[in-house]
Amino acid sequence: MNNIYKELFQNDHIDKKQYELLDAIRTSKLISLYYELRLALYLGIMLFTGGVGYFAYQNIGEIGHLISMVFIGVVIIAGFYFIQKIAKPYDNLEVTVPKPYFDYLLLLVSLLIISLLAYIQVYFDLVELLVNWSSFISTAIFMFMAYRYDNRALLAMGITTLAAAVGISVSPIDWAKGEWLSSTNLYVIGLFLGAFLVVAGQLSQHKNIKAHFRFTYQNFGLLLYYIGCLSALFDSNVPYFYMFLLLVSAGALSYYTWNTKEFLFFLYSNISFYIAFTYLVFSILENFRGAEILLIYYFPVTCISYIVILITKKSHFSND
User: Fold this and answer.
1) What is the phi/psi pair of residue 208, to 5°?
2) What is the tens place of the pLDDT at every residue in 78-109?
């Protein structure tokens, strides 16, 4: 493997410039900062939009509400002008724009639209009227922008606002108090929304409509589904129903994702299946005297065995 680039160069498959570039990457003389720069730019846009809101809040007496809304509107119009100038026509297949700042401009304009809508609701006292619709409106905007301009970050934001619109939201305070899924209705909402997103991702691939969105849909969908099932398992009045549901669905998805070589989804399914199976084992053994000895060895043996199996079978996913 170390000499493969040299062999390609010697056999005239690549030129000297390409060989030097590949060799520099192999020896870590050349390091990619692509993801670090993208993260910094996304963070910069978030900070900028937050700063605009803070500036308007601090100086609202001097610049006025209407002027603030007009200013945000002008920035949105200018952003849309450049977006339309750069963007390519819609296509069901993946569309790439060879401009490094295009995605960040999309994100900025989308966030400013949401900010302007929130500003209008507060200023004209429409919060109570639109409180049940504002999240759906945000979802529609993010989804439209994601599909029209082929942006997975906006798709993820659209799915997040959809979850918030149907009542699934988590705050750090609720997480610390253990109240992040305190309602039985949320179990059902999480299950159905998760299943819906998984099916939506599968359909997008089957119908070849933005097939590359499948991973984003199913990543959110499986997390919502499994979290809903696990929460219901430990907090509902019918834990064995959810245990059975989790064993069947997680087992089936483990088999499916093993065959499709999707390691992340395979891991999600394995962990969920393991928790449900452990719940079943504990439920059975608690009725037997002296079973505590077996339970002491259960976690070390099963966890170590699973890690060993993953390590020995890692080559199965090596092509991904």
Assistant:
1) 60, 40
2) 999 999 999 999 999 999 888 877 888 898 88
Tell me what the pLDDT averaged over the chain comes to. Answer: 82
- Nearby residues of 137 by Cβ (< 8 Å), 6 or more positions away: 117, 130
Please report, as a single letter, which amino acid is at residue 202: Q
pLDDT value of residue 43: 76
Cα dihedral 207/208/214/217 (nearest 10):
-50
Each residue's pLDDT tens digit, 36-65? 676 777 677 777 777 766 666 666 555 667
- Scored b (16 or more CB within 10 A) or e, 118-130 reads ebebeeeeeeeeb
Half-sphere exposure of 51 (CA within 13 A, CB side): 7
**Contact between residue 142 and residue 126 where contact means Cβ atoms under 8 Å apart:** no
SS3 159: helix
